[in-house]
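Incident log, structure service

09:12 report received: a user says their structure output differs between two submissions of the same chain.
09:20 pulled the input from the user's history:
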Amino acid sequence: MLLRLLLLFPIISLSQDKESICGIWLEEEKQSHIEIYQTDSGDYEGKIIWLAEPLDKNGNIKLDKENPDKNLRHKTIKGLIIITDLELIDEDKWGNGNIYDARSGKTYSLNARLENKNTLFMRGYIGFSLIGRTTTWTRIEPALKVEKGVKIDH
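09:34 re-ran on a clean worker, output below:
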């Protein structure tokens, strides 16, 4: 019985590693929460589920106005899928993905690495990963949070 449990342990550990990137993350500039989840096809996506400032300077809901595809500029920023095609490469590394920057309307190649359970390094780049930018995201609890007396609903 003990031998069977020991043989199953690596399988259990591997399945936990595959999903360890999943969760809700606060991006480095602290302006949005992004939920990363595994898709039915096995890759990973991330969508914006909360914005610190959901309204533009005119009081309208923020739209994806910088999108290079004019047909998509009517989409709201909240709910926008910004991470696509991210694949598990190793136990704490993901790659071959893309990340969309709604601020600029640009899409970059993406690699990600978990430093620890609550710290995620995201590297966006064009061409080679040596030429790019790394940002640090922090895991947050999925429960409702209260900031400035307002509940944040994910």
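09:41 both user submissions now match this output. Likely a transient worker issue. Closing.
09:42 reviewer note: The domain at 20-152 is CATH 2.40.128.520 (Lipocalin). Residues 55 and 61 are 4 Å apart (CA to CA).
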